[in-house]
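Minutes, structural biology subgroup

Action item carried over from last meeting: produce the C-alpha cell record for Oleosin (Arabidopsis lyrata subsp. lyrata). EB confirmed the sequence was re-checked against the source entry. Recorded below for completeness.
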Amino acid sequence: MADQQQPIMKNLHESSPSTRQIVRFLTAATIGLSLLVLSGLTLTGTVIGLVVATPLMVLFSPVLVPAVITMGLLTMGFLFSGGCGVAAATALTWIYKYVSGKHPMGADKVDYARMRIAEKAKELGHYAQSQPQQTHQTTTTTH
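Output recorded by EB:
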C-alpha cells in the first residue's frame, strides 16, 4: 500500500502549481475582486444619482430638452464646420504638392485618370468631327 501511495504523491507534487503561479493567481484574484467592488460602487452611485436627479429633470424638462437639442445642434454644426475646414486644408495641401511636383500619395492614379480622359476626349473629338460630314452626306443624297 505504501508503494502505491509513493507514485501518487510524487505525481501530485510534480503537478502542483509553483510559487510564481500561486502569486499570479492571488494577484489576479485581488485585482479582479477590487474591480468588481468598484463596479458595484459605481452602479450604486449611478442609481442614487438617477433617483435624486429624476424629479429635477421632470420639473425642468420643458427648459432642458430644447436647451439640450440646441446645444447638440450647435456642437454638431461646429464639428461639421471644423471637419470641412480640415478636409479643405488637406485637399489644398495635396493639390499644392501635386502641382509643385512633389508626387503626393495617389498622384499616379490621378495621372492615369488624366491620361485615360485625354484618350477618350481625342476619340470623342474625332467622332464628333466625322459626324457632321456623315450627316451632311446623308442629307444631300436624300434630296
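Discussion: Residues 23-59 form one domain.
Next step: EB to file the record with the rest of the batch.
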